[in-house]
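Sequence only, no structure available. Ideas?
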Amino acid sequence: MENSEKLTNSKEVIAYIAERFPKCFTVEGEAKPLKIGIFQDLAERLSEDPKVSKTQLRTALRQYTSSWRYLHGVKAGANRVDLDGNDCGVLEQEHVEHAKTALEESKAKVRARRKEQAEAKAAANKDGEAKAKKIRAKSAKPKNTKQKTSKINKKPVETTRALTADEVVVGKNVSVNMGTGNMPATIVEINKDDVRVRLSNGLTMVVKAEHLRS
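Reply:
I predicted one. C-alpha cells follow.
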C-alpha cells in the first residue's frame, strides 16, 4: 500500500511533485521555467492526492519559483514547460528581466545579512577578547603579599629625672610618673613623703615624692 501520510513542509512537497512530474520539476540543478498557470494544472492532477493540499501546493510552488536555481533558469531563449515537460512557448523578455532583478535583490539581501552577521560576530569576538585581556591583566597583577603591620604611634620617650628634696616645693611645676607616662602637674601641698599635686585637668591627687619628675 502506498504511504499516504500527509506531507508537512514545502521541501517535502517540492520533492514529492518532482518525483511525480520529473520532466517539469527538479530538486537539484538549474530548474526549467514553468508554464503560466501551472498551479491549476498541478492542483487538478493532485486533487485526489491525500498527501498534499492546495494551500501546500501554492506555498511550495511560490518557494520553488523564487529559488535562485529557478531564477537562473529563467533566461532569454529558454522555453516554459508543462507538467509533462512539453514546451509551452519561449519566455518573454519582461519575464526574463523580472527574474534577473529578483535574483539580484535576493542575493543582495543575503550578502547584507551575512555582512551583518559577520559584523555582529566580529563585535562579539572583540568584546570577548577585551574581557579576556582584562581578566589576564588582572590575574597578572602581582598581589601584595607583604603582611600589613599596624603602625603604633609611639610617643618619644621623655627624658626626665627624679626631683631632689630641695626641688619638692609648693608651686613647682612637675611631671607625675603614672606608669604609662608622665602627666604635667603643680605641687599644691607637701606632707612628709606624700605630695598633693593638681593635674592639668584640674584634678588633685596625692602621690609619693619619688613619683615626681622634673
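DSSP finds five helices and seven strands in the chain.
Hope that gets you unstuck.
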